[in-house]
Amino acid sequence: MSGEKTEQPTQQRLKKAKQEGQIGRTPDLGAWFGMLAASMLLPRTLGQAMEHAEELIGKVPDVITRPEPAKALAILKEGLFGAAWAVAPLALTMMAVGIAAAAAQGGIRVATKLFIPKFNRLNPFTGLKKMVGPQALWELTKSLFKTVVLGAVLYMTLKDIVPRLMTAGRLPLTALLGIVTDAVISLIRAAAIAGIAMAAADYFVVRRRTQKQLRMTKEEVKQENKNTEGDPLIKAQIRARQMAMSRNRQMADVPTADVVVVNPVHVAVALRYEPEKGAPRVVAKGKGPLAAKIRELATENRVPMVQDVALARALDSGCQVGQEIPAEFFGAVARVLAFVMSLKARGSAAGLHRNPSPTPV
């Protein structure tokens, strides 16, 4: 049926979808990659934070001994700046990972059209369709799978760490903190790797669903091609007008030509030679009725016509109107112009003349 959306979306349709924010992407991908990057930088961040905390704790007794508001504020300021300096690489890395993940899923674009209020978004039936449709089923499956996988990761991690903590009563605090930190980082990395796998699956599902939503009917594709490339009928009319304007310009230049090389019936090429502007230039050319019109104007304006079958055909096929003739025609055209000049010297240049030294066929 013509109403079925069986065609792939055109580039114009994809561009419009991006402008409207309709892009197949999942935010989970950037979030899980960010968590994985955080697990790599977390030991360094915690180490710097602990070192800075130890330095600040070493300064606290001096403040307690000699309590001064200025010293207390200085320690507070130093602590805040130290914490920010320690966390900055982690925060910037997670932000960069999030931007890179968004760019990899279709580019970064601010969909301004989403800010325009649309009343159809308030339609409760649309929301109900999303709650009971295939999209809702996939979201439910994804949530359950995510819960099961993360629960399994948490169980496997705690299964190894709990026995160690039960027997770590005699360990110093730093060693105990190290064990806990390693366990937490291992848990984060395992969860991030599992999350990335789930986000990749979610991305392909969302991408496929979006592509399906963007499919078009055959009629929509035809209409869009017509809008993009223009109506064939209108394009044909424009070409016809352009050709008519070109012919009118040519006809206006025929009276200024120095010679018209003819076939003598089927082809006519008008040439004008201005030494200060370079080689002879084609000012008009044509076949059939157009050639007849050129010959008629040449007769009315007493422009010499020289019959040279081979040269007329060669000029017509090898030259463009408004351009200088190619170098391979210099000799033949020079002989024609010399012949015309000799006719003018005798006062009988107008009319049709046979070239005494025609171009070899």
TrEMBL record:
What SUPFAM superfamilies does UniProt report for this protein, alphabetically?
A: EscU C-terminal domain-like (SSF160544)
Q: Which InterPro entries match?
A: T3SS_substrate_exporter, T3SS_substrate_exporter_C
Keywords per UniProt: Cell projection, Cilium, Flagellum, Membrane, Transmembrane, Transmembrane helix
Keyword Cytoplasm among record annotations: no
Looking at the record, which segments are called Disordered?
1-21
Q: Which GO terms describe its cellular component?
A: plasma membrane
Show the stretches that span the lipid bilayer.
83-104, 136-156, 176-206
Xref: Pfam families: Bac_export_2 (PF01312)
User: Could you mention a single GO BP entry for this protein?
Assistant: protein secretion
Q: What is this protein called?
A: Flagellar biosynthesis protein FlhB
Give the organism the record lists: Actinoplanes siamensis
